[in-house]
Design goal:
The protein is mostly helical. It has 7 helices and no strands. The model has no long low-confidence stretch (mean pLDDT about 95).
Length: about 160
């Protein structure tokens, strides 16, 4: 199970690192990488592909490891992640509300799950990681670092289950 989780984390880490390297620095948000890959390489589909692939690999591990404890929250969280990928064009009026709602569900359900199972270490480490990145990056791109804090919390928390 952890192998799939490590692969999923590797995919999103490589995607974000490649975006930062190839597209002139840290993006303003993870979702904005959809537009960056479109502008620089005409490959907007990569954002959706990464969100879906990471979501599929993550849900397999997360549901398998939570052993009947609040299984609906991992399902909601990963569904939110996949809807973020499906409604990637958050600047368009048609998909904007779906995208933002899905992002909130993704973060909220993941945070609620780890709070309910008492995995405070993952929550604190995710928050510290996001805050450190934001401070090191000279307090720019707060949305990106907040989203990355949720990603780190999610993967560390699932790994430690």
């Amino acid at each position: 199970m952890n192998t799939l989780l490590i692969i999923a984390f590797g995919i999103i880490a490589v995607y974000l690192a490649a975006t930062a390297f190839l597209c002139d620095g840290v993006p303003c948000s993870i979702s904005n990488t959809y537009y960056l890959w479109g502008v620089y390489f005409n490959k907007r589909f990569l954002f959706t592909f990464v969100m879906w692939l990471v979501g599929i690999l993550t849900i397999i591990c997360w549901i398998g490891k939570c052993a009947g404890r609040y299984e609906f929250l991992p399902f909601l969280s990963v569904s939110g992640m996949m809807f973020v990928g499906a409604a990637a064009a958050f600047k368009e009026t048609l998909t904007k509300s779906v995208h933002y709602t899905a992002a909130g569900v993704w973060a909220g359900a993941a945070t609620a799950f780890f709070a309910l199972v008492g995995n405070w270490q993952a929550m604190v480490l995710g928050l510290v990681f996001g805050l450190a990145g934001w401070l090191i990056n000279r307090r720019q791109n707060l949305t990106f670092w907040a989203e990355l804090a949720v990603v780190v919390m999610m993967f560390l928390g699932i790994y430690c289950l």
